[in-house]
Amino acid sequence: MDFRNPAVRWGMGIASGAMIAAIAVFFLEGTMQLLVLGIAVVDALTTPWVLEQAIEGEAGEDAAGAA
Hints:
Blueprint: H1 6-27, H2 31-66
Helix pairs in contact: 1-2
């Protein structure tokens, strides 16, 4: 999997957020359901950013090791 591709990063974030949201909808209710749905949104939005930071850090380490 090429994490440098934004479609892969966003796809992973949306997929994991959707799985968390499905658990919230089918197994939880009330305040707990709303809390887990909020976590799903945060996960879907932050996963691509975290993966991008990991790729940038890896590229920086490769450049430092080559010098």
